[in-house]
Amino acid sequence: MNLGPVVLIVDDSENDLLLMRRAFKKAEFDLPYYTVTGGEQAIAYMCGEGLFQNREKYPLPTVILLDLKMPVMSGFEVLRWVRAHHVFNRLCVIILSASMRKEDVETSFDLGANAFLVKPADLLDLIDLMKKVRDWIHVDQFAAAVDAVPAHEMQALE
Fold first, then answer.
1. CB atoms within 10 A of CB 152
2. What is the CATH number of the domain that holds 36?
3. C-alpha–C-alpha distance, residues 100 and 52, integer Å
4. Contact 132, 117 (CB under 8 A)
5. What digits encode the pLDDT tens for the residues 70-87?
């Protein structure tokens, strides 16, 4: 079941997720996207656990937009987890953070991020950024998405 590019947004802030949904709508973001509120939920989504068991309803993403500063499990930890599991090696992970710290940028790339975008504070700027992300996803070529993780590999994810 390959739908083409699917986006997963990982952010602990309900306000930021609300702004992202608005920005996606205003940017005419016509790709399927899903949201989770934190690192633990992101991993549950990737593993197809709990609420996310139904892969028709919650397909594996092609692109993750990942916030860094989250309680319990940071974006760095999520990125480290994703890159530690070879079934997700080709997954495109874009850091979308308010941080402009050079150390955060460097650590993100060291851990395997594909890009680092600074999250604008202004809604109009966020809409503009999401238009660019949308356009980039439309023209980019992605490695074949994993439709499902084989059972023996799913056990290794836990």
1. 7
2. 3.40.50.2300
3. 32
4. no
5. 999 999 999 999 999 988
